[in-house]
Amino acid sequence: MLGLKVARRQLLCALSCLLLLPSAPGYSFRNCIQHARHNGTFQCVHRFLTRVSSAVSDLPSSTLHLNISQNRLTLLPKGSFHRLPGLLSLRLDVNRLKSACCGVFSNLTRLLTLNLSHNSIAHLTDPDFRGLGGLKHLLLHHNRLATIQPDTFASLASLQILVLSDNELQNFSGVILAVTALGNLTQLDLTNNRLGSLRHATSLPHSLQSLYLCNNSLATFDCRRDFLNLNFTLDLSNNRFSQASEFSNVDLWNVRLLILSNNPLNVSVFLRSANVDLRRVVYSGLALGSLGQLSDFCRQLGGKPMKSLVLQGNQITFLTAQALAQCPPITAWDLSRNQFMSIGCLEFVSKRQHVVSFIVEHNKIQKMASCFKEGRTSTFPNLTHLSFRFNRIFTISPHAFSYAAHLQTLILSINNIAIVNPMAFSNLTHLLQLRLDNNLITDIHQETFRDLRSLRILNLRNNRISIIFREVFANLNNLDILDLGGNKIRSLTSLSFSGLHSLSKLYLDRNYIAHIRSEIFSNLLSLGVLDLASNWIRYNTALVATSPFVNLTKLYILKLHSQQPYGINIIPPRFFKGLIALRALYVGQNKMSVSDGGFEDLVNLRSLSMPDTCNGIHSPNPGIFKNLRKLEWLNLENVGLRFMCVDILGGLSNLKTLSLGKNAIQSINRTVLECLPSLTYLDLRKNPFPCTCGNTWFQNWSLSNPRVQVVYFYNQTCADQPTEYLYKFDPRICYLDIGHLMFQITMPILMMYMLLPIIYKKGYWHMKYGFYILRSWLHDQRGRGDGQQSYRYDAFISYNSNDEDWVLRELVPNLERKGPQLFKLCLHHRDFELGKYIIDNIVDSIYQSRKTICVMSRRYLESEWCSMELQLASYRLFHELKDIIILIFLEKIPEAELSTYHKMRKVMRKKTYIQWPSDVEAQKLFWVKVRDAIKGSSCAKERGPPVQS
C-alpha cells in the first residue's frame, strides 16, 4: 500500500511539472547569484574576478541591478555591458579600476545609479560617461582624482547626486566648470580633498541643494561675492577659516544652512561681520565654552525665532539662565559632545514654551535629578523629544522629567543606568517611545511604567534584568513593541505580560529562558512577532501536554533558533498548534530532530529556516513537510541530509527557494525536482557530488533547465576528483554496452573493406603534396648554381591578430634587428598598400617574398583569412615548384584539431615545421632553425626588382 501511494505521488508530481514548466531559456551562472526573491538583481561579490566578462557573459539581458564590487577588476573594456541594456544600478566599487574609458557605459541608457567608489581612478573624460543620459547618482569617492576635465560630465544631463569626496582634487574652478551645466544637480560632495581656494570661472548650478566642502584646506573666500548666494546647505566644517572678516566678502544671506564646525573662528567677530542669516548657522566646534561668550552670542542672534541651535563640541561645562537669557526663541536645542556633568531641570533654557526638541548626547551627565516642585506646572509645555544617549547616567530620580509633561520620545540609551526610581517617569502620560537599552538595569517594577498609558515602544534591550515581576506592564494597554532581548531573564509567569492587549512585537532573544508555556502568552492575542532566539529552551521528550503558542493565532513570525547550549533537541508533535497565521519560522542552529507531525499545524507557513540543525548524518522523517503546501522558502543547509527524498520534499508544490548546502548529498533525485514545479532557486554548494554516471542527468539539467538557478553550479567540484568540475564531466563514458563491444569486434573486419577507399580519400593529397615537395626540393638544388631571383621581402608573415603580441615582441625583433643575419619581413599593418583590395595585398605580398611564415595557433586555424593566406602560399608552390612555406607552431595542437589541409602541411620536411619552445635556452636554437629555413639576406630589396604576382 505504501509503495502504491509513493508511485501515485510521483505520477502526480510528473504531471504537475509538465503542466507548470515554463518555456524560458535555462540558466545557471558562473560567477553571480540572482537574488532569490528579486528577479533581475545579481550579486557577483568576492569572486576574485579580473575581467568584467567573467561576471556578465551569462547574465540575461533583463538584468536590472548588478553588483560586481569587491573583486580585482583593473580595466573596463569597451562593450563590457552591451548585453545588459536595461540596467538600473551598477556597483563596481572596491576594485582596482584605474579608468572608465572608451564609452564602456554607452549603451546603458536606463542606468540610474553608478558606483565607482573605492578604486584607483585618476582621470575622467567625457567619453567615459557617454550614453548615461538618465544617470541620477554617480559615486566616485575614495579614488585618486586630481583634476576634472571641463567636459567630463557633459553627457549626464539628469545627474542629481555627485560624490567626489576622498580624492586628491585641488582645482575648485575646474570642478565647478565641469558641473555648471548640470541643471538637475542637487548634491555635490567634495569632502576630504585638497581644495585650498574657491576661485571659479563659472557659477554653481541653481538646482544645487547641498554643497559639502568639509575637510579641505579652505581659509579665504576668494570667489565672487554672490557665488554662494543660493538656497542650499553649505558645509565648510573642518577647514582653516580663522578670519571672521572673510565672511563679509561674500553674500550668504540665502544659504539654507551653513555649517562652520571646527574652524578656528572668532565667533563674536563672525556674528558682527558675516553677511548671513545667523539663525541658519550650525555653531558646533567653535569654542563657545565660556558664559560670557554665550551671552554675547545670544545677544548677536537677535530676537527672531530659530528652528534649531546646534552647539555641539564647544567644551561647555555648565549653563545659567543669565547666560542664555537673551537667546531668541529656539525650537530644537542640540548640546551634544560637550562637557556637561549635570543638566538639572533645564533651568538655563529661556523662552521654554517654544522648545520642542532637546538633545544632550555624548556628555558626562551622571544623574537625572528630581524636578518635582509642589504646585508647579510643566515648564516646557511643548517639549516632545528628549535625548540623553551616550552619557554616564547612573541614577534616575523621581519625577526627573516632570518639566516636560507632554514628552513623546525619551531616549536614555547607552548609559550606566542601574537605578530607576519607581516614580522616575511619573506623569508622562503622553510618552510614546521610551528607550532604556544598553544600560545596567536589574529590576523594573509596576510603578515604573504606571503612568505611561500612551506608550507604544519600550526598549529595555541589553540590560541585566533577571525577573519580570507580575503585572509590571499592566498599565501599558497601548504598547505595540516590547524589547527585552539581551537580558538575564530566566523564567516567565502568566502575569509577566498581563495588560499588553495591543502588543504586536515581543523580543525575548538572548536571555536564559528555559521553559515556555501557553499561560505566558495567553493575554497577547494581538502578537505578530515573537523572538525567543538564543535562550535555553530544551525538550528531551516528545510528550508535551499543550502547545505554548496555542493562543497566538495572529503570530506571523516566530524565532526559536540558536538555543543554548545544545539546542532544542526535539520538537514535540503539535508543538506549533494554534499558529494558523504563521508565515516565517526560524529554528536553525539547534541540534534537534522533529517529531512526526511537528510542523503539521503550520498550514500557512511561507518561510522555514532550519540550517545547522545537524545532529549527525541523518534524514528527516518522511512527511515532515507534508502540510506545508504554501511554503515558498526552505533553508536546510547543514542538516545532515544524505538523500533528496520524495517523501520529504515531494509535496512542496509552491516552493521557490531551496537551500541544501553543506550536506552529505551525493546524488540528486530527479523525481524530487519534478515535484517542485515552482522552484526557481536551488543552492547545493559544498555537497560531495562525485563525477559519476548517476549525476550526468543533473549535469545536463542544471545547464539547460528553463526555470531553476543552480547557485554556482560551475564551481561545483567532483568529490572523487577535487581538481575537476562536475559540469565538465564527459557523459560519453556512461554509454558502454554490448553494442559498443560488438562494434569493437567488427571494426577490424570492416576496416579491411574500407582500407583502400580511405587511403585514396584521406591520403591522396598527402602523397600528392609530398611529391610536389620533392620536386620543389630537386628544382631548388638545380637552381642554386644558376643565381637566385630577387625579392622585395625575405618573408611574408601570416598570423592571427590574437597572436600579434608574440609577432611584434619576439618574431620581428629577432629576425629584423638581432643575429648575424638580418631579414626584411612583410607585415599586414605595416607593409600593405593603402587603398588596394585586401586579397590583392595578400597575393602581392606572398609573391614578393621569398618565404611565407605561418604563425600557427588554434585561433589561426579558426580564421578564414589565415586559411586563405596559407592556401594562396601553397598555390605558389605548385606554380613555381618551390617549397616556400615555413610553419611555426606557438602551441601544441593535436592532430584531431587540424583540418585535412593542415595535416598535409605537417608531413612536409622537418626544417619547415618548427615548434616554439617555452624554455629560454631552447628559444636560441629555435631562432637558428628559423633563420636557416629562410636562407636569405636582409638586403632583399637591393638584389633586384621585386617579383610581380
Automatic annotation (TrEMBL):
Residues passing through the membrane, by range: 741-760
Pfam families documented for this protein: LRR_8, TIR
Domain of life: Eukaryota
Gene3D superfamilies: Ribonuclease Inhibitor, Toll/interleukin-1 receptor homology (TIR) domain
Position of the signal peptide: 1-26
Keyword Coiled coil set for record: no
Assigned keywords, A-Z: Glycoprotein, Immunity, Inflammatory response, Innate immunity, Leucine-rich repeat, Membrane, Receptor, Repeat, Signal, Transmembrane, Transmembrane helix
A GO biological-process term: toll-like receptor signaling pathway
Gene Ontology annotations for the cellular component aspect, listed alphabetically: plasma membrane
GO terms assigned for molecular function: signaling receptor activity
Domain called TIR: residue spans: 791-934
Main subcellular location: membrane
Topology versus the membrane: Single-pass type I membrane protein
Localization of this protein: Membrane
Similarity comment: Belongs to the Toll-like receptor family.
Name of the protein in question: TIR domain-containing protein
Organism, as annotated: Scyliorhinus torazame (Cloudy catshark)
Lineage, opening ranks: Eukaryota, Metazoa, Chordata, Craniata, Vertebrata
